[in-house]
Amino acid sequence: MPEQLTVYNPATGEAIESIPQQTAEDVEKAIERSHKAFQSWSKTSAGERASLLKKWYELIVENKEELAELITKENGKPYEEAVGEVLYGAGYIEWFAEEAKRIYGRTVPAPTTGKRIVVTRQAVGPVAAITPWNFPNAMITRKAAPALAAGCTFIIKPAEDTPLSAYALARLAFEAGIPEDVLQVVIGDGAEIGNVFTSSPKIRKITFTGSTPVGKILMKNSADTVKHMSMELGGHAPLIVDEDADLDLAVAQTMASKFRNAGQTCVCANRLIVHESVKDEFAKKLSEEAAKLKVGNGLEKGVNVGPVINKKGFDKIVGQINDAVEKGAKVLTGGTYDQNDEKGCYFVTPTVLSNVDTSMNIMHEETFGPVAPIVTFSDIDEAIKLANDTPFGLAAYFFTENYRRGIYISEQLEYGIIGWNDGGPSAVQAPFGGMKESGIGREGGTEGIEPYLETKYMSIGL
Ligand code: ADP
C-alpha cells in the first residue's frame, strides 16, 4: 500500500490533495487509544456529551459552504445537493445530542416482594465504522452522532474516493471540544483495515454502509468476537405508479428520487413499475424532465447531474444500458455518455428506458447511475410481486390517490422504508434501514441510538 492516498476530483480529474494512509499497525494503535478513551468518555454525563455534540453541529452549520464544496470536489454531486447533504448530516448530530439525554432505563415488577429489578442502558464500547463515497459527510455523522451520544468512542474508515470530508468533520469535532481519541479517522485499504477492526476484541461494534458483499464479509469476520453489527447495504428500489396516481406528482418525485447524486444512492428508484394505462403519459413526461437536466461539474451553476464516481461504477451503468438495449429496451432519452479514461472522468446522460423486462440485468442489479427503466403491469398484485422479487429490501415507493389501495400496497411491500406519494422519505427523525439483504439495524429516529447501547439489569435482594 502506498504511503499517500491522492484524492481526485471525478469531474475534472485534478488531484485535490494527498493524505497519509495508515498501516494495520497504525490502526491497532488507534484501537488502543479508542479503548482507553472509552473508559473516560463513557463516564461523562449525558448533558456534557449533548453540549459537545450541539457545538459540533453548530460548527458544521457555520462551515456548510466549505464542507459542501469539499463534497462536490471529491464526490462530484452538484453544490446545492452537497449543501443539502451537510445540513442533513448535521441534523443527525443535533438530533442525537438531544437523544443523549433520553437514554432511559426501567424498573420492572420483581417476582417476589423481597427483590427489585432495575434495567439500565450503557454504551456498547469502542465502535468502528466503514462508510461509502456517495454521502461522504452524512454517512459519517449518522453513525458518529448516536455512537458519541451513547458514550461510545468511534473510529471511522471513510471510502478511499472521498476521505477528505471525514477529516474536515473530525477537525470541527475537535474544535467543538470532542477529545481526539474519542473520534478518530483512519485511511487506507478497506479489506486490510476491515480485518483489523473485525479481529480486535476491543472493537465491540461494527457499523457499515456499503455493498452487500462487503457487509457479508464483515459479518462473517466479526463472528469470532461476537460483535454488535449495524449494516446498511445495497438497495434495488421499486417505484410503482398505479392507474389512479397523480402523474405530475409521480414524475416530480421520481425525478428527485432517481437522479439525485447522479442516481448513486442506495434508495434511488431503480425499477419504475408503471400501470399500462398511464405508462405512455408517465414515460413521456419523465423523459421530457430528464432531458432538461444539465450534466457537468457540480461546482458550475445550473448543473443538476455530476459525474459518476469512477470507472467501475461507470462500466456497470453502461453495461446495464447496453444489455437492456440488446434485449429490446427502447431509449426514450439519454443513453449517451462522456468517457475520459485518461483523466478518470465519467458522465452519463440521464436515461429513460421503456420496453424493459425481467430478462435484463437492470431489473436484477442495483444500477447506481442515472438510468430509469420502465416496466408495465396490469394488476397491482403483479406489481407487488415484481417489487418484492429481489433479495434487497431497503426503500420502495408507490403513487396512488386511493387510500385503501395505498394501505394494501404498503403492507405487502417487504421494505424498511416506504415512500407513498413521496420520493424523498429520508429524515433525521425516522429510522432509516432495510429488510432482507439490505441490512440490519436502523439509523435515525429514536431507534438510531439503540444499536450503540447494551442492556444490563440488576436484581437487588432486600
Ligand atoms: P462500493 O462498491 O460502492 O465502493 P464497497 O462496499 O466496496 O462499496 O465500499 C464501501 C466501503 O467499504 C468503503 O469504505 C471501502 O473501502 C470498504 N471496503 C471495501 N472492501 C472491504 C472489505 N473487504 N472489508 C472492509 N471494508 C471494505
From TrEMBL:
<dbReference type="InterPro" id="IPR050740">
    <property type="entry name" value="Aldehyde_DH_Superfamily"/>
</dbReference>
<dbReference type="InterPro" id="IPR016160">
    <property type="entry name" value="Ald_DH_CS_CYS"/>
</dbReference>
<dbReference type="GO" id="GO:0006081">
    <property type="term" value="P:aldehyde metabolic process"/>
</dbReference>
<feature type="active site">
    <location>
        <position position="266"/>
    </location>
</feature>
<dbReference type="InterPro" id="IPR015590">
    <property type="entry name" value="Aldehyde_DH_dom"/>
</dbReference>
<feature type="active site">
    <location>
        <position position="232"/>
    </location>
</feature>
<protein>
    <recommendedName>
        <fullName>Aldehyde dehydrogenase</fullName>
    </recommendedName>
</protein>
<comment type="similarity">
    <text>Belongs to the aldehyde dehydrogenase family.</text>
</comment>
<dbReference type="GO" id="GO:0004777">
    <property type="term" value="F:succinate-semialdehyde dehydrogenase (NAD+) activity"/>
</dbReference>
<dbReference type="InterPro" id="IPR016163">
    <property type="entry name" value="Ald_DH_C"/>
</dbReference>
<dbReference type="InterPro" id="IPR010102">
    <property type="entry name" value="Succ_semiAld_DH"/>
</dbReference>
<feature type="domain" description="Aldehyde dehydrogenase">
    <location>
        <begin position="4"/>
        <end position="457"/>
    </location>
</feature>
<dbReference type="Pfam" id="PF00171">
    <property type="entry name" value="Aldedh"/>
</dbReference>
<dbReference type="InterPro" id="IPR016162">
    <property type="entry name" value="Ald_DH_N"/>
</dbReference>
<dbReference type="InterPro" id="IPR012394">
    <property type="entry name" value="Aldehyde_DH_NAD(P)"/>
</dbReference>
<dbReference type="GO" id="GO:0009450">
    <property type="term" value="P:gamma-aminobutyric acid catabolic process"/>
</dbReference>
<keyword id="KW-0560">Oxidoreductase</keyword>
<dbReference type="InterPro" id="IPR016161">
    <property type="entry name" value="Ald_DH/histidinol_DH"/>
</dbReference>
